[in-house]
Every structure is written in structure tokens, then in C-alpha cells.
Write a structure and sequence with these properties.
The complex is a heterodimer of chains A (383) and B (311). Chain A has 383 residues and is mostly helical. Chain A has 17 helices and three strands. Classes of the chains: A mainly alpha (383), B mainly alpha (311).
């Protein structure tokens, strides 16, 4: 085992990521040119920190997309010669080079880090999106109607929020619980919300045009049922989509933990704007309640919601990392960053750098989302 | 005010009942009970023996009856028997809570003043270089969860420099022993409180009476200390009180990370071994802390801000 120089490691990593740099450059330059026409997204380019945040987030998204091209080795392939090697180790006989060193089983940390972004960046945004749909679908009526509905839903939300997150995960994400109906039941409930949401959106808008409505509804229903069956019950007739039981378990737990917070925000915003004039105008016109909530109120609270979404994807990333850190849910081989931290932290005394790739990757991604949220908040307050 | 508190106390009680029942239901699901039976009999038992063990130890009675029994014992002050540590929960809890209390106390001592200072300095002059710099610092701190900062600190201060210990012994309050866990927990919380303080401070600094004070010719220093601070600290008060529940989650991570044998460590042990009574007591304690802090923050907010009245 020999080592290559630190600057060579640096240059090699930069070279490996050329596709990512190219894409970031193209996206940044093209968006900058037409930024005036891009609304809130275009305003990010007015701020230096915003561009930094966007760069970080884009970087990890592109890493996730091009993981197979970037990563030199398979994340699970073991090279016993390079077990617990330091940064820039290479094996003279086989020529295998570990840019960021290897872990306890001789797997390449650089490849694992890049592949880990795939797990993190599919689960975190998807779970946040569904949690948002749950929060919006329940939060709008709670804020708009108030009274009984609000009291019941708020009590449930506060109940879930009173649980320490860790305890919730230890109860809901275990191999034992997967034998029961709980994860499938929870996921079945939560995954209904996107379909309900779309139905309400379409029904409230196109009530006067039954032909168009029925076409849209049947299309939604078809896609919705297909996604629902394949994700929740793993019964995809075309075998295109599937979700492992442990992944479904994580999804359900993360959505369960984060939707009450979103519910509270949406409810607060709805209560705030329901006395505005345009709402009264819509009521006087005789619009349906769901039309008012989804087509009048929702577009008007999108600013704070976008900001909260950014923050929350970051927070969901932290939650996923926590799950990995405690070894819950994700498979023990998984290369997601939380699990990587858990796998490598025992060897801090032997190779201190072993734990750094995953920790830095995780906090840089969260930092990116937080910076983005901060700038979006600032820019949306300006007008 | 009195009726408000009574109402809140009732809701608190309801919340605790429902939540402990949910925990009770989940830990008593079939796979968890089987795991418990196997773990208690050193894993070497057949399926039939599992069933007889569960039958013999009374785990097969209706769940409502057993939950009622637990509540009855709770009202007598008996928290039950820990199957993991093989002694009554009453003998375990106080000591562990005290250890965690000491840790949380030092976290608060470090976190709150530094967060308030950062927030006030940043919010004093909105948009200045100090503000920009401190805002970035607080964003970075909120983006670093405990399991990231704790590990990085251990690498730097313990493995590399050798100044501090990577493992914290419970109850031993020394600089070498306590700095890493306290620092790890404080850093994640500082950013959040600092940002709240900053937001509140900037709002106060743009208000009319501050402008009047400026026009009267008072010095900037005097205005900040005498006029702005008192009003700017109302909003962060709620945030700081509501940090206690968050501290609970942080405590679990940090105690696992540094092997500090406090409340969080017990919670993990209980959860991993499906120790029913111990886990129920842990949930009871944490839910109690959450609802009590919510109540305190609501009441305190009313007292601090005379513009808000509850009825």
C-alpha cells in the first residue's frame, strides 16, 4: 500500500467530478441570463450566499444523478488490501486507488459518499413533499374553518410533536414492527394524500367542465393507483417501481415525524389570510370552500411554504442521518451518510479521516438548503 | 388566567395518557414481545417456550387491563420493573435523570448567553458586516447536527490534539470530561436561538420609540442597553424554553456518542431491548418535559408581554 500526494488527490477528485462542474456551470449561466423571468428562483442570483447555497445543493443533486459515472468503484465492493487506509492510498499490484481512503471492510469511501447522495436525495425530498401534501390538505381546512376540525387536528398534531423524535424512530422503525401492519398502514394512509390533494385541486377548479374533469380525474386515478400499489404494497404489475419494506418503513416514519410541523405552519398562515378581502370576494362570488382554500389561499402562502420546504428538506436529511447513526431502518450495508458515520466512527482512533467524508457531505448539504432558505426568505420579503 | 391553566393542565393530562398508551400498544406488539421473551431467556428457546414464557409472565392478558394496571401503579408512584437492568425502574431513573440534568444545565449555561449575544450583536445594526458574518455563523451551526459536530470535535480535540476525552463519564464535571458533549449540544442550538434573537432585535430596532430615542440624541449604546434589549428578549424567551424538548433528542444522540450513561443512554438501552416498563417511564418523562415547557412558555409569554391576554 502506497500513498499519492494530497494535491494529486485533490486534482483527481476535481477531475472525476467534471460532469458535475459542467452541469452546474451550464445551469448557473443559463439561469443567470434569464433570471428576470424566473420569479423567486431568479432572485436567488441577486445574492452571493444564495448562489453558494444553490451551488452546494445542485452539486449533490448532480452527484446523485451521475453517481455511476463519478464513483470509481462499486460502493459495496471490498478491497481487503486497502482496509482502513488513509486518504490517497493505492495498491501497487492492482492499481486500485482510494481517493478518500477505505473503510473497515475495504470499501472506497469516495464511491460510497457519492452513492450515498442517491439515498439521501431521493428519500429526503420525496418524504418532505408527501409530508407537505399531508400538512397542506389538513392544515388549510383547520385554519379556514377553525372550531371543531381545528381542535381535533391540532390536538393530534401536538400529540405527535410531543414525542421526542428518537423515541418515535425507535418505536416505529424496527425489524419487528415491519412484521406488523403498522408501517404499511401508515404509508398507506400518507400516500393517499397526494391523490386526495390532486382530486380536490381538479374537482374544485373544473367543476363546470365535466368532460375535461373526468378525463383529468381518470388520468390521475390511473397513475395514482399504479404508484400507490407499487410503493405501498410492492405490487407493481409492470415491475418498474418498488420500495423495500425497510425503505417504506423509513418513509412512513419520516413523514409521520415532519407533517405535524408543516400542518401547524399551514394552519397559522391560513388563519392569518382568511380575513383578507380577496377571500371575502371569493366567498361572495359563491365559490366552493375547496376552491377558496386551494386556488385562492394556497398560491398566496406559497412564499413562506417554499422557504419552509427548503429548511425542512435539510431537517429531513438530519433525521435520515439520525436513523443511520442509530442503525435503524436502513440496511447495514447502505452507503447513506448517516449509516456511513455509524460504520466509521468506531475507527476514529485508528484513522481519524475515515469519518470525515460522510460528516462533511451531510452537513454541507444541510448548509446548502439552509442558505437557500435564508436567501429565499430575504428575497420574498423584499416585495 | 386560572381557567386557562386548568384547561391546559387537562389537555396535558390527556396528551400524556394518549401518548403513553400508544407507546404501550407499540411495545406490546407480537414481534416485540417475542423479542423480549427470547432476550430474557438468552435466545435459546423454541416457539412453544416463547408462548409459555409470555403466558407465565402475564403478557397475554388484554392490553387495556395491563395498561390500567400500569396507570394504577403509576398513581402509587411505582414505575414498574426493568427487564434490561433487572431492578425496579424507581431505582434507575432518579440517578440517570440527575446525570442528564447536570449535562443539560451546563449546555444551557453555555448556549443561552452566547446565542443571545450573537443575536443581539447581529440584530443591532441590520445588514452590517457584523450582521452578515454572525448570520453565516448561526446558519452553519444549525446545519451541523450533533452527530456531525460531535465526531468532528472528537477527531480534532481528542484524536489529533489529545486535549479532551472522547468519552464522557457521567457525573464527573471536569473541563476535560464535559467540554466535548456540552460544546456539541450547545453548538447545534446556538444558531437557532441566535437567529430568533436577531429577528426580534431587528424588529425592535426599526420601531418608532427607538427612532424617538435616537432623535432625542441618546447614544447608540444607551438605546440598545436601556430601550431595545428588554423588548427584544421577549420572543427569544419562548424559543429558549421550547429548546428543552429539543435538548432531549440532542441528549440521546450525545449520550450515545460519548457513552455518557444518563437518561438518553437508558432510553436507547430500553428501546433496543424492548424493556417495556423502562421505556414507558422514559416516554412519560420526556412527554412530561415537553408539555410542561409548553405551558411555561405560554404563561411566561403572557407575563412578559402585557399586550397579550388569554381568556
Amino acid at each position: 500500500m502506497q500513498y499519492i500526494e494530497a494535491h494529486q488527490v485533490f486534482i483527481e477528485i476535481i477531475m472525476r467530478l467534471w460532469l458535475v462542474w459542467l452541469c452546474i456551470f451550464v445551469i448557473m449561466v443559463s439561469s443567470y441570463i434569464v433570471r428576470k423571468r424566473l420569479g423567486l428562483y431568479g432572485k436567488i442570483y441577486n445574492s452571493f450566499t444564495g448562489v453558494i447555497g444553490l451551488c452546494i445543493v445542485l452539486f449533490w443533486f448532480l452527484c446523485a444523478i451521475f453517481a455511476d459515472q463519478i464513483a470509481p468503484y462499486d460502493p459495496l465492493q471490498q478491497f481487503y488490501q486497502l482496509k482502513r487506509s488513509k486518504v490517497g492510498a493505492f495498491d501497487v499490484e492492482t492499481g486500485v486507488t482510494f481517493l478518500l481512503g477505505g473503510d473497515n471492510l475495504g470499501r472506497d469511501l469516495f464511491s460510497r459518499m457519492i452513492h450515498g447522495s442517491q439515498t439521501v436525495l431521493t428519500i429526503a425530498p420525496a418524504a418532505t413533499l408527501i409530508a407537505f401534501l399531508v400538512g397542506v390538505t389538513l392544515g388549510l381546512p383547520a385554519g379556514y374553518y377553525g372550531k371543531r376540525i381545528d381542535a381535533i387536528l391540532s390536538f393530534i398534531a401536538n400529540l405527535i410533536l410531543a414525542f421526542p423524535v428518537i423515541l418515535l424512530f425507535y418505536l416505529l422503525v424496527t425489524p419487528g414492527i415491519r412484521e406488523t401492519f403498522v408501517p404499511v398502514g401508515m404509508a398507506g394512509l400518507f400516500f393517499l394524500f397526494p391523490i386526495i390533494f390532486l382530486f380536490l385541486v381538479l374537482c374544485s377548479r373544473y367543476r363546470e367542465r365535466p368532460v375535461l374533469l373526468s378525463m383529468q380525474l381518470s388520468a390521475t386515478l390511473l397513475v395514482g393507483v399504479w404508484l400507490y400499489a407499487s410503493l405501498v404494497f410492492n405490487a407493481d404489475p409492470f415491475h418498474l417501481l418498488s420500495l423495500e419494506p425497510n425503505e417504506l418503513n423509513i418513509f412512513a416514519a419520516v413523514i409521520f415525524a415532519s407533517s405535524p410541523g408543516i400542518f401547524r405552519i399551514v394552519r397559522g398562515l391560513a388563519m392569518d389570510i382568511k380575513t383578507r378581502d380577496y377571500i371575502t370576494a371569493a366567498q361572495t362570488r359563491g365559490e366552493g370552500v375547496w376552491y377558496i382554500m386551494l386556488w385562492e389561499m394556497l398560491p398566496n402562502i406559497r412564499g413562506p411554504l417554499v422557504v419552509d420546504m427548503c429548511l425542512r428538506i435539510g431537517y429531513t436529511t438530519i433525521l435520515l442521518g439520525t436513523l443511520g447513526f442509530f442503525g435503524l431502518g436502513l440496511s447495514p450495508e447502505s452507503s447513506d451518510w448517516g449509516s456511513m458515520i455509524n460504520q466509521t466512527r468506531k475507527y476514529i482512533r485508528i484513522v481519524p479521516t475515515m469519518v470525515l467524508p460522510a460528516t462533511l457531505a451531510l452537513s454541507s448539504l444541510i448548509l446548502g438548503f439552509n442558505l437557500l432558505a435564508d436567501v429565499l426568505r430575504e428575497q420574498s420579503l423584499k416585495d | 388566567m386560572f381557567i386557562f391553566i386548568i384547561k391546559r393542565l387537562f389537555i396535558m393530562l390527556m396528551t400524556m395518557m394518549v401518548l403513553t398508551f400508544i407507546v404501550f400498544y407499540l411495545v406490546n406488539m407480537e414481534p416485540n414481545l417475542r423479542k423480549l421473551a427470547k432476550e430474557q431467556s438468552n435466545n435459546r428457546i423454541t416457539e412453544v417456550e416463547v408462548q409459555t414464557w409470555l403466558e407465565k409472565n402475564g403478557y397475554r392478558r388484554p392490553i387495556i387491563e395491563r395498561y390500567g394496571e400500569w396507570l394504577l401503579n403509576l398513581s402509587k408512584g411505582d414505575l414498574g420493573y426493568s427487564t434490561r437492568f433487572r431492578k425496579p425502574v424507581n431505582n434507575i431513573m432518579p440517578q440517570r435523570l440527575q446525570y442528564t440534568g447536570i449535562l443539560a444545565f451546563w449546555v444551557m449555561i453555555v448556549m443561552v448567553p452566547s446565542a443571545l449575544l450573537i443575536g443581539i450583536l447581529a440584530g443591532m445594526r441590520e445588514g452590517s458586516k457584523v450582521d452578515r458574518g454572525l448570520s453565516v455563523v448561526s446558519i452553519v451551526s444549525t446545519a451541523t447536527p450533533e452527530y456531525v459536530s460531535g465526531i468532528i470535535f472528537t477527531v480534532i480535540f481528542s484524536s489529533w490534539l489529545g486535549w479532551l476525552k472522547g468519552i464522557a463519564k457521567a457525573g464527573d464535571v471536569t473541563f476535560i470530561n464535559f467540554t466535548l458533549p456540552v460544546m456539541t449540544m450547545a453548538i447545534y442550538g446556538v444558531g437557532y436561538i441566535a437567529r430568533m434573537t436577531r429577528a426580534s432585535m431587528t424588529e425592535v430596532m426599526t420601531s418608532q420609540y427607538i427612532r424617538t430615542a435616537h432623535l432625542k440624541g441618546l447614544s447608540f449604546h444607551y438605546i440598545v442597553c436601556k430601550h431595545a434589549l428588554r423588548n427584544a428578549l421577549i420572543a427569544p424567551f419562548t424559543v429558549i424554553i421550547l429548546q428543552f424538548p429539543w435538548l432531549l433528542t440532542g441528549v440521546v444522540i450525545v449520550e450515545k456518542l460519548f457513552n455518557y450513561k444518563g437518561f438518553g443512554w437508558v432510553l436507547i438501552e430500553a428501546a433496543e431491548n424492548n424493556d417495556i416498563d423502562l421505556l414507558l417511564s422514559c416516554s412519560l418523562v420526556s412527554v412530561f418535559i415537553v408539555v410542561v415547557t409548553q405551558l411555561i412558555s405560554d404563561i411566561g409569554y403572557v407575563f412578559l408581554n402585557p399586550r397579550i391576554r388569554v381568556n
